């Protein structure tokens, strides 16, 4: 349990640091953002990196169905960890 708390704490720190990330300074994000609106839709992610969809709803902090640069980075970081350490899924409505 303590290791899971440590991982979640580290992810929180990473997400706080990621707030400074914007699309202009994140080439990997810009490459996926085909409509250049500064957000990634599920469709854009599906075409570019479908693996990210596995954690999309967990990384979508504001639950708007789109990914900001910070949320996208969080999703990529989550994928580098074992699934047991991923953030919990948001409650279904």
What does this structure look like?
This protein has helices at residues 2-18, 27-32, 42-48, 56-59, 69-79, and strands at 40-41, 66-67. It has 93 residues and is mainly alpha-helical. The protein has a single domain (2-84), classed as Orthogonal Bundle (Recoverin, domain 1), CATH 1.10.238. Strands 1-2 form a two-stranded antiparallel ribbon. The longest helix has 17 residues, at 2-18. The termini are far apart. The mean pLDDT is 78.
Write the layout of secondary structure elements.
Layout: H1 2-18, H2 27-32, E1 40-41, H3 42-48, H4 56-59, E2 66-67, H5 69-79
Antiparallel strand pairs: 1-2
Q: How many strands appear in the DSSP assignment?
A: 2
* Architecture per CATH nomenclature, i.e. the level-2 architecture: Orthogonal Bundle
Number of domains: 1
Look up the CATH topology.
Answer: Recoverin, domain 1
Taking all Cα atoms into account, the compactness measure Rg is 13 Å
Give the key terms:
single chain; 93 residues; mainly alpha; Recoverin, domain 1; two-stranded antiparallel sheet; 5 helices; 2 strands; globular
Brief characterization of the structure:
With 93 residues, the protein is mainly alpha-helical.
């Amino acid at each position: 349990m303590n290791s899971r708390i440590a991982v979640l704490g580290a992810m929180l720190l990473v997400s706080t640091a990621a707030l400074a990330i914007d699309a202009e300074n994140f080439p990997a994000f810009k490459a996926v953002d085909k409509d250049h609106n500064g957000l990634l839709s599920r469709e854009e992610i599906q075409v570019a990196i479908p693996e990210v969809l596995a954690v999309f709803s967990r990384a979508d902090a504001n639950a708007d169905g789109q990914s900001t640069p910070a949320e996208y980075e969080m999703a990529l970081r989550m994928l580098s960890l074992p699934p047991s350490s991923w953030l919990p899924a948001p409650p279904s409505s």
